[in-house]
Specification:
alpha+beta, Creatine Amidinohydrolase, Chain A, domain 1, three-stranded antiparallel β-sheet, 12 helices, 17 strands, 18% strand, binds manganese (II) ion
C-alpha cells in the first residue's frame, strides 16, 4: 500500500532547515513590536509525553519544559529558546535533559538561555512589546488557568498595555498548507492505518469484543514502527455505530452487525483519520448494502469537487443535498429537510498535527491542504450507522486521495470478509 508520490524528501533536509523555513514564514507575519511566545508541554507524572503541536511545528523539539520566544523590534526579527538547566539529581530518575547545544542543533535556533532567566529577559523586552501571540490554551472547570496563562500572568499584570492573543490565529494559515515532509508523514500514518484496517477486516468474528479489534489494529500500528494513535479510536458495532463519538469500544460484536471503525495512527505527530465499515458476516445485508451504497456514492461525488478555490461550505451543502436525495430515493425520509434526522455533522475538517487541524470551518481550499471527506447515515432504530472517511490532499489542479489504497467498494470488502471466514 505504498504511496506513489514522486518527490520524496531526500533526508538531507534536517529538522533545523524544515522548522527554520516555518519560522521565516512566521517572522514575515510579525509587525514591529509583535511577538510570539510558545510553551512546550510539561511532563506529566509517569505519563507518556506529548508535545504541544505549535511548539513542535516551530522548533521540531519533542521535549518538555522549553519556551520559544520570537519578536520583531526596530525591523529586526529575533528569536531565542529557553531550556532547563541540567540537574544531576533529577537526571537519575528522568534521564539526561536536552542540553542547550543539542536544542540549538536540532532546532537551528542559535540563541539559547535557561528557563530561570525567562522573566528577566522578558522584562527587558516588555517596554517594546505591543502584542504577544501565545499558545494560551483554553480554560476548563478542572483547569481555571493553563500553564502558559500562569506563566504570562506576571507580564500581564505589570504591562497591561501588551495585548496577549491566541497563537492559533497567527499560525493557522501556515499549518493549513502542508509541505512535502508533512505530507509524507500523513501518508505513512494513513498507509499503516489502512493496512491495520485490512488486518481487522480479515480477522474479526462474531462474539469478539470491540476492544479486541482495537488491540489488533494497535498491535499492527506499533509493529509497523508507529507509536501512537492520532486520536481515541472508535470501534463501533451495530447500534454503537449510530453514536457519533462512541469511544468505549467495550461491547460484544453480534453476527449480522455492521462494524464501523473510525481510526488513525500518528506518524511524527501527524494523524491519519479513516473510517471504514464492514459486515460481521460474509456479506452486507440488503439494507446495510442500500445505506452503505448511498453514503459511498455521495462520498465519491464530494471528493470529486475538491480543488483549489472550493470551500468547505460548498462541500457541506453538496453533501447535505445529495444525502437528502439518496434518502428520499430509498424512502428513508419524505422531505429533503428531514436529512438532519440521519446526518448531523459536517463532511470535512482539516487534517494534520491535530486530527481536527487548524484551518477553520469557512476556509477556502488551497494547494497543500489536507482534509477529510466523511459523510454518514445513522439510523439508531435499525441499529445501523455508516460513515466512510478518506483523507484528501488538495493539489494544484484538483486533489489526490491519500487513502485510496484502503478498500471501500462493497465487493472488495465482502471478498475480504469471505477470506476471513474461510479461515
Ligand atoms: Mn474525521
Amino acid at each position: 500500500m505504498a504511496s506513489n508520490r514522486k518527490e520524496k524528501t531526500t533526508g538531507a533536509e534536517t529538522t533545523a532547515t524544515i522548522t527554520g523555513l516555518r519560522r521565516e514564514k512566521l517572522a514575515a507575519l510579525l509587525q514591529d513590536g509583535e511577538n510570539v511566545i510558545v510553551f512546550a508541554n510539561l511532563q506529566g507524572n509517569l505519563e507518556k509525553f506529548t508535545q504541544d503541536n505549535n511548539f513542535l511545528y516551530l522548533t521540531g523539539l519533542n521535549y518538555p519544559e522549553l519556551i520559544y520566544v520570537a519578536g520583531r523590534f526596530a525591523g529586526k526579527f529575533n528569536e531565542l529558546l529557553f531550556v532547563e538547566r541540567g540537574d544531576p539529581e533529577r537526571e537519575v530518575w528522568e534521564g539526561k535533559k536536552l542540553t542547550a547545544e543539542e536544542a540549538s542543533r536540532i532546532s537551528g535556533i542559535s540563541r539559547v538561555r535557561y528557563l530561570d532567566e525567562f522573566y528577566n529577559v522578558l522584562s527587558g523586552m516588555a517596554p517594546m512589546m505591543k502584542k504577544i501571540s501565545a499558545n494560551l490554551g483554553f480554560t476548563a472547570l478542572n483547569r481555571p488557568l493553563t500553564f502558559p496563562m500562569y506563566m504570562l500572568e506576571p507580564l500581564r499584570s505589570k504591562h497591561p498595555q501588551i495585548e496577549i492573543k491566541q497563537l492559533n490565529d497567527l499560525v493557522a494559515p501556515l499549518r493549513k498548507v502542508k509541505d512535502t515532509w508533512e505530507i509524507e508523514q500523513l501518508q505513512k500514518a494513513i498507509d499503516v492505518t489502512g493496512e491495520g484496517i485490512l488486518d481487522v477486516m480479515q480477522s474479526t468474528e462474531a462474539r469478539m469484543m470491540e476492544y479486541e479489534l482495537e488491540a489488533t489494529l494497535f498491535y499492527y500500528i506499533q509493529r509497523s514502527g508507529l507509536k501512537h494513535w492520532g486520536f481515541a479510536p472508535i470501534i463501533a458495532a451495530g447500534i454503537n455505530a449510530a453514536t457519533l463519538h462512541y469511544e468505549k469500544n467495550e461491547c460484544r460484536i453480534k453476527a449480522g452487525d455492521l462494524v464501523l471503525m473510525d481510526v488513525g495512527a500518528s506518524c511524527n505527530n501527524y494523524s491519519a483519520d479513516i473510517t471504514r465499515c464492514f459486515p460481521v458476516g460474509a456479506k452486507f445485508s440488503p439494507r446495510q448494502k442500500q445505506i452503505y451504497q448511498t453514503v459511498l456514492d455521495v462520498q465519491k461525488r464530494v471528493i470529486a469537487m475538491i480543488k483549489p478555490g472550493a470551500t468547505l461550505a460548498q462541500l457541506n451543502n453538496a453533501t447535505r443535498d445529495w444525502l437528502a436525495e439518496g434518502m428520499l430515493s430509498i424512502g428513508l425520509i419524505k422531505s429533503a429537510d428531514e436529512v438532519v434526522k440521519y446526518y448531523m455533522h459536517s463532511v470535512s475538517h482539516f487534517l494534520g498535527m491535530d486530527t481536527h487541524d487548524l484551518g477553520g470551518r469557512e476556509a477556502v481550499l488551497e494547494e497543500g491542504n489536507v482534509i477529510t471527506v466523511e459523510p454518514g447515515i445513522y439510523i439508531p432504530d435499525e441499529k445501523l450507522g455508516v460513515r466512510i472517511e478518506d483523507d484528501v490532499l488538495v493539489t494544484k489542479r484538483g486533489h489526490e486521495v491519500l487513502s485510496k489504497a484502503i478498500p471501500k467498494e462493497i465487493a472488495d470488502i465482502e471478498k475480504l470478509r469471505q477470506k476471513a471466514l474461510r479461515k
